[in-house]
Each structure stands twice: as C-alpha cells, then as structure tokens.
Amino acid sequence: MSAGRTFKRGGVHPPGEKHRTAAVAVEDAPLPERLVVPVSQHIGAPARPVVKKGDRVLAGQVLAEAVGFVSVPVHAPTSGTVRRVDVAPHPMGTPQPAIEIEADGDDAWAEPLEPIPAPEAADPSVLRRRIQEAGIVGLGGATFPTHVKLSPPPEATIDAVILNGVECEPYLTADHRLMLEAAGEILAGLQIVLHLFGLERGWVGIEENKPDAIAEMGRRAGDGGWAEVVPLEIKYPQGAEKQLIQAVLGREVPSGALPMAVGAVVQNVATAAAIHAAVVRGRPLVERVVTVTGPGVREPKNLRFRVGTPVRHLVDRCGGLTGDVAKVVLGGPMMGLAQHTLDVPAIKGTSGVLCLTRDRVRTAPAGPCLRCGRCVDACPMGLEPTGIAAAIGADLVEEADRYHALDCIECGSCAYVCPAFIPLVQSIRYAKGRVLSWRRKRGR
Amino acid sequence: MSLEPRPLTLSSSPHAFAGDSTARIMWTVVAALAPATAWGIYAFGPRAAWVTALAVAGCAGFEAVFQRMRGRPVTVSDGSAVLTGLLLALNLPAASPWWLVVLGAAVAMGLGKHVFGGLGQNPFNPALVARVVLLVSFPVQMTTWSAPGSFLADGISGATPLGAAKTAVATAGVLGPAGHVDLWALALGAHGGSIGEVSAIALILGAAVLLWRRIIPWDIPAAFIGATLLVTGAVWELHPDRVLDPLAQILTGGLLLGALFMATDMVTSPLTRKGRWIFGLGCGVITAAIRLWGGYPEGVSFAILLMNACVPLIDRFTRPRKFGWVKEAAP
After folding, report:
1. The complex's ipTM?
2. Is A407 exposed, middle or buried (0-12, 13-18, 19+ CB in 10 A)?
3. Which member of B21, B121, B323 has the closest CB to residue A380?
4. Which residue in A has a C-alpha nearest to residue B11's C-alpha?
5. B316 in contact with A at a CB cutoff of 8 Å?
6. Minimal CA–CA distance to B27: which of B66, B87, B80?
7. pLDDT tens, residue by residue, B21-80
C-alpha cells in the first residue's frame, strides 16, 4: 500500500507512460522562422492587439493588451516583424485572432519590466499587477489568469497555498523535469505567493511516481518547515484542483464553489516559476516546457519553447513522427485536445504534444450501456456519468441537471473505464452546455 | 518536415482507455462457466452436452433474428447471447426435450431481452425469465431430474436434495432420511439438479476468476449467500427436523449458480455498492423464504427476478454522495 495521501473517492490507474521522457533533461527548442501568437491563450477576455502588420517587435514587448480584469496581455516571444494580424488555427479547434511574427533570428529583448529583487518587501498589489502585466496564466493546462486566482474577494480568508507538482496525466514529464532542474525558482515563486496572503507556510503536492522530484524539492525547501512536500498516491486525477486540496488538506471544496471557499489557493509548479521570473527578473511569460512524447514520435523530449512555436516545429525537433501516427493530442491523454493538423501554435497552456499510433487510437463504435457501474466507481466527483449521458441522450436537460452534470470536472476517468466505449465526457460536456443555457433561460 | 497522416483522428478526450470491452467481459464470463458446464456434461452425460449446445445456438440464433427484425446490427459476436444461452442451459435439467430448450431460448431473447430494447435495456435476467416461464408452463419436464452417472455416487436419487426434503416434510411432516445429505457429495456435484448448478466447487472456481478480474462484484454474492445462511440457519435452529441445515442450503439448488453468476449480471443489478448489498440481501431473504415456506422447493430464480424488479428503486435511493455536497455547504 502507498503511504501517500490521496483524495477519497473514485479515480483510475492508467499506465504512467512517463519512462520515455522522465530522465530526459529539458532542451531549448530552436527558434522557428515564424511564430503565431493567439491573443486568447487564457480563460477570459481575449487580449486586444496593439501592433499592426509591418511593425518591428522585440522579445518581451506587448503584442496585445489585457481587456479588463479577467484577461492578460500577450508578449512577443522573440524579435522580428509582424507579418499578419488575423485569424489563425488555434489548439482549441476554432480559428482565433492571432499575431504572426517572422523571427529575425537575433532574439533581441525589449527592456524587461522593472525587476523586484526583494518581493518579500513589496506591496502585494504591486506584485499582483506585475503578475498580470507579465501575462501569467495557470500553466497546468486550465490557463486561468493567475492574478485573478491570487486576488480573492476581501471576505475570503486564504490560509493554505498548495503548489501542484502532481502531473497526474500519463506521458507528461514537463513539470517533473522543472522540479528537478528549477526547484529553487519554483520555491521562490511559492514564497511570493505566500507573501501575497501573509502566510508563513505552504505545501507542494507531488505524486509518488516522482521520488527524485520529491527529494529535490524537499532538499531545496530545507528544514525550515515553511514548504512541506507532500507525497501523493499515484492515482488519477490526483492533480485535479479539488482532489488535490482534499488529499493535502482534507478539505472538501463545495459544489459550484472555488477553492477559496475552503481557504485554499492552488498553483501549478511551472506557474510558480513563471511568477518568480516575472517578479524578480521582470520577464513576461513567453516560454514554457512541453513534453513531446508518445509512441508516434521518434525521439520524445522535454522542450522549452517560445509561445507561438508551431507544433510541427516541435515535433520535427524530436525526430519527427513515426509512420503509423493516427492522433496528435495537445495536453495529456486524459484531458488533452486532439488536433487535426500540426500547423497549430503551441501556447501557454500546452503541456504536452502526444503522438499516438494507430494501435492506441480507438475507433470502435460505442455500444449500449451495460450498467456495469464502473464509471460510477471511477468518478472522483461521486457522479453517475452513465445517468447524465442517458439523460442528455434523451434530451432531458432538467434530469441531467439533477444528476449534477455541472459538477463534472471532465477528468475522463469514466470514459477511460467504460467497456461499452461510450464517449461519456463528450456527452457530459454537451449536457453541461445545455444545463447552463436552460438555467439562464429560467433566470437562475 | 514531419508529414502527418490526413486525416488525423479527432475525438473528444480521454485518449487512453482501460482494456476491457463488452465482448471481453461476456466471453470471460462464458469461460468462467466452463468448469461448471464441463462437470454437468461429465455428470449427466452427452444429453447435457446436447442441451447446452442447443440452448447456446438457440439464443445466438434468436438474437440474430430479433436484431434483424428490429433493424439493428447483429451483435452475436459480443458474446452476450451466447452467455444467456449457456446460463439457460445450466438452469435446465439434462433430460429437457429439444422443444423445451428452443422455446426457452426464444423466450430468453424475445421476452427477456429484445422486447425491452436489447442488451443493457432488459430489467430482468433473460436466462431466468426463460427458466421461470418454462418452470410454470412445463413443471413436469422442468423437474424431471436425471441422477448423475452411477459411476459417481451410487444410490443418489434423481430428485434434488431440496425437492426430496420438501416432499418428505409435506408427506411425513419431518425430513427423515431426506435430511441426511452428504455435504461433500453436494460440494462436488454428485446429486440431482440442473446441468450447471450441481457442482459448488466448479462454480466457485469459475467465479474466483471473475472476482479477481473484477467482472463480478463480491458484495452481491456475499450478501446473497450470507442472508440465505442466516435466515435458513435461524429456522433450522428451531426446526432441525424439518429444515435442511444451512450449509446444505448453500450447496444445493441453484443458490451458488444464482448468487455468483445470475444475480451479478451487470445489466440487472444496482450501480452502487450500497445498492448491491441491499439487492443481495433481498435475494437471500426471498430465496430462504420461498424454500422454507413457499410452494416450490427452490426459490433462487424467483428471488433474483423479484429483486431485479426493485433495481431502479434501489438505484434511486442509493446514489453515491457527490463531492462537495457537504451538509453545511449545500445550497
């Protein structure tokens, strides 16, 4: 039995598949000739372009500015010339406005934002503004603007900050490598977040399949006890926000509420490192680490890339695709998005480029539900996925709502175990949309 | 430059899957019934093999016929009809005439399954529906038990131990010699009964594989067998001269076949653990009640069908607790 803490209900155990890249040090991807920088790389209002075709830009310069509070700017990932400001393919599926830059190869940097070498002495509001200015979003994949998450309303009391180093998605090792190679920066980022809330002590949750990261983060944190590294049982979705909070703190975030309802704030480890870079070095977020992996790519790697780099460029850097690739997913296999082309840019939220071969791609049609109950057992939210899917399949929106479709975190555990191959997540996602519009119509 | 195949597969997440499929589950259960089937054929002879083959072929055939009639793809290869056929055969006497078997297959696939919309939609276990229809329609043929081959156990009558006990109590008021059952003979399967219900050892062997593969849950059999033990045991304590002892109750009749392979049918049992306990306890209590006080010597089929009917209600009242719906925080 595992000694690690865990969430209480449900969960699945997909094979880790991390061996391909866990021991491969992060490598800098070379600059591509062209980069496509979408103005929407976060949840919230898309940024508004402030450059036009033909403009010369320097790395780190603002390309599009934040529109309102729940929005962040995007910055030029390298120096070059703006070639287009137009819609372009986007990892989310539908084309989105983007700024295309032809790199000049010099990678000349604009003046950084003013460094704040002693953040512990800085005013929290200055730090929050900096985090927004730097364009920082949650790098775990959800891409929620970080400064918003760090600005709870005055009535909320935050007493726990947790760094998410779980990386429970199979195949992905980007956070794992970062914890090994940049533990100091991650912990410095944690210190800044703790300072924002006037807290002395935080937690770092790491799944037990990364003993070296647990050791390294523990060693860097030292004996002071201010940062407790918490080993977590290997179980998916251990890194889902509500599940992580339950595992680490034993607190249950109420349905429909945010973690702040139980006094918790969770940040991904890469986000913490980005916060540190933005505050202490004045660097906006223009790069991140991605795991390019799967049986469909010749040399799986962890690559540090500039935002806007075409996925094709990253795959080429890893020896290219094998002959029998059938699916390319951005993110991990449980929650990632399948792409129809490699000509999409890798962006702030791109944690993985997963190349799956034909033998790992399911094309068999769905059969009828056997009522085996495996989805119910697997659901970490205590839902009945088959019930929601059946309800919305029969167009019973109110029934789907009564099954608590909106509580679904879309982790994929139900569809992972379904022996009838029913696309439960897809159904429930559809149900959520229908329930929301039905509720709006009813004025709730 | 990398050339990706066109088109790349597009589908909603997740993109990884556990290995099990409907067909794999069904065929695994079929395989797990092999020991009990083999024992039945060994004990009752070629006649049992003929009945088994006919029931399996009949169910597979009727599945195809009804799916054609409904304009649905024919999915005989998923093994579910084969499994129903096998379970039906194991619930029939080896001496069943051919028309009884064919009629049973038609009832199982028609009334038991396709009138409700096919796989996954049927509220009742199809094999049990067929068995009960045959039992109430053709009681003579359905209770004409052949004794296992004489090479096994000399002197065991063709009657089932439960049937013999019921008859003895009805005519003489006490069990008398019918109360003397050899538990080892029961466990091995050297007594009268349906083709697949006689050998406890063979049934448990197969069920162990399904438990290990997590294809059947342990809670339904545990609750079913436990409740039967408790109720029959309590009454046996009071009237040892009129009731077979609780161990014999477990080892005779269709109890193990029912508790391990029929009550655990995914389609017709509850979704949650709590629900499965209620379901199993209900099956056990009803089985015991029918055996002790009912007109039939055996009650497993009726008990499971009655509890099948309760499944929607049980599911409704045993929903899992939703994450984040703590009492004080619920809106």
Report:
1. 0.92
2. buried
3. B323
4. A338
5. no
6. B80
7. 999 999 999 999 999 999 999 988 899 999 999 999 999 999 999 999 999 999 999 999
Q: What architecture does CATH give domain A119-280?
A: 3-Layer(aba) Sandwich (3.40)
Domain ranges of chain A: 119-280, 374-441
> What span, in angstroms and rounded, lies between the C-alpha atoms of A131 and A147?
6
- Out of B11, B78, B324, the one facing A255 most closely (by C-beta) is B324
What region does B63 belong to: left with phi over 0, alpha with psi -120 to 50, or beta?
A: alpha
Burial of B38 (0-12, 13-18, 19+ CB in 10 A): middle
Query: Which of A251, A312, A343, A371 to mutate against chain B (most B CBs within 10 Å)?
Result: A371
Q: Say if residue B154's pLDDT is above 80.
A: no
Quickly state the pLDDT bin for B177 (edges 50, 70, 90): confident
pLDDT in tens, B120-132: 999 999 999 999 9
How do strand A160-165 and strand A202-207 relate by DSSP bridges? parallel
Find, in chain A, the residue whose alpha carbon is nearest to that of B16: A333
Domain ranges of chain B: 22-142, 161-317
Q: With contacts defined as CB-CB under 8 Å, which chain B residues touch A292? A: none
Q: How far apart are CA B326 and CA B331, in angstroms?
A: 10
Task: Characterize the bridge pairing of strands A301-306 and A27-28.
Answer: parallel
* A contacts of B269 (beta carbons < 8 Å): 371
Spell out which residues of chain B touch residue A251, defining contact as CB-CB under 8 Å.
none
Buried-state track A167-183, b at ≥16 Cβ within 10 A, e below 16: bbbbbbbbbbbbbbbbb
- Apex CA A75: angle with CA A74 and CA A78, to 5°? 145
φ/ψ of A108, rounded to 5, equals: -80, 135
Cβ neighbors of A165 (< 8 A, separation 6 or more) are A175, A176, A179, A186, A204, A205, A206, A210, A213, A217, A268, A269
- Contact B327/A at CB under 8 A: no
Residues of chain B with Cβ-Cβ distance to A386 below 8 Å are 271
- Is B312 in CB contact (< 8 Å) with chain A? no
